# Entry
Amino acid sequence: MTKSFQSIPGVLDAQAGRVVLSDRKIVDDSFDLGILVQVQDETALQQYLDHPRHQKAKEEILLPLIDKVLVYDFME
# Structure
């Protein structure tokens, strides 16, 4: 799935992985799967969010399997 995201215009990188459980209180390990998508800028973020490939993955693959979504949008 993340490889297909990498070909969306404006996406610089996309990765997915499982949580690493930790006894450290500062670590948020309340999730099973993390997906990181790095985009060029805010315009590219919106293009990624609206892109049919992202929409299809979200609606057909991710949302049917999950109970909760957390999103952290941030800029460098």
About this structure: The first strand starts at residue 11 and ends at 18. Residues 21 and 29 are 6 Å apart (CA to CA). Helices lie at 2-6, 42-50, 52-62. Residues 2-20+28-65 form one domain.
